[in-house]
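Fold this sequence, please.
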Amino acid sequence: MATLILVRHGRSTANTSGVLAGRTPGVALDERGAAQAAALPGRLAGVPLAAVVSSPLQRCRETVRPLLDARPGLPLHTEERINECDYGDWSGRKLAELTDDPLMEVVQAHASAAAFPGGESMRAMQTRAVEAVRDWNARVEAEHGEDAVYAMCSHGDIIKSVVADALGMHLDLFQRIHVDPCSLTVIRYTRLRPFVVRLGDTGDFAALTPRDSGDGRDSGGTAEVGGGAGAP
């Protein structure tokens, strides 16, 4: 079956300010995120992509734009099922404010039981994302052959939930997975099982150096509370 390259969007203004953006409109890439997106064509230069699939949100569309500009004719498809998790009433709130909410403990330790007020459950999020990936795998293979490779640009919690499924990992453990902004995660699907061949690959080890936990450098998922609870 097809090989999937999952691209987390570049660093956004919400990541920088420590806000759980969710589906809030108007959240764009910040300066660093734009630079990350600009580097994407070079990072994927040797990969013969069959298609690009993107979440409908602005920060994802901005992330894949340089790649599309570098490859005229490469089709872009928008997929609602890989949209950000619907965090409901939590959307747009500072992550630091949510740390002490009892629900955050459930999100971290028992994600399969977590449902956001006014939003969706994490189980529903994973189900729709995995279904989207399976559908696109079949479509890309049917149109381009079993060796085809395609890219899908989405969000931290979405990507982690897809990786958890590929690893046969329960959703309750998915917060153990970390994907940086504009990182690449590659899953090769076969008839019997998927293989995770890259995970959160940025080619940059700067994220391993000590940093001020309040800098908001890679916040943006429910495990990344301003670099605090649940984050590496």
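The first strand starts at residue 3 and ends at 8. The radius of gyration is 17 Å.
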